[in-house]
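Input sequence (270 aa), recorded before submission:
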Amino acid sequence: MAKRSNPAVRIAQETAHNAVFDADGKPKPGVHNMLLKAVEIQRPLVVAYIRRLQRKHPRATAAQLANILERDYLRAVTGGGALVGATAVVPGVGTVASLGLSAAATVGFLEATALYSTSLAELHGIRLTNPEKASTMVMAIMLGEEGTALLGTLSGQAAGREMSANKAWGNALSKSMAVPGFGSIRNRIQKAFLKNLLKRQGSALFGRALPFGIGAVVGGAGNLMMGRAVVSNAKEAFGPMPDTIPGELTAAAAAQDTPTLEGKTFGSQR
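Predicted structure, token format:
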């Protein structure tokens, strides 16, 4: 027996689509800027976030901190999706109103992804001081293999000098000087990112706008799937975690360590 369609679901999907796309199926003005702004992040915020984790876990290795980053990221994006989806059940919050919250959830997902990706890069010794380079890396990781392959073209011949491809593009993005070809690579990544995001996140946007509590399930599950994909892409892009915490983060961790004498640990000083 054929499954009967729910007209409320169809209306919610159509309304959500109309809120983001015009009659020709193209994103409405401002949508692209909103999405691109969401993946921008400043390095001081990333470093402060990692240092806060180091204060909470002073003995954690780079790999352990990466696991904490992953756990917190998935919790953040999953909880956000379910929370917004649940608003469709609240009296007085109709489908149209919940679409604004769905857009906010999309931005929240991207901001959390930017923080996770750049924090993981920092633990790998990739210092993204340029916000434009940082956002390009975030977009590439969300794209997966296609994005990291494009980033790989920034490495030039570096990979041929006994350097892995991921280390090569990481070094290229870490440079404070201009990187040859970066502008064209960024444009290609940005175009592919927006196209794929609006396709993938569009279904999640519709899901979060569904009424009768369906949105709470679809929103949380959809964000979890996308979050896990980001984690998998990031691990593939960066490769194995380093044995030690790199750069200035090492000094921060050492400063928090407790003093020792002949192998015996004194109590922490406050």
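Checked by second reader. The radius of gyration is 21 Å.
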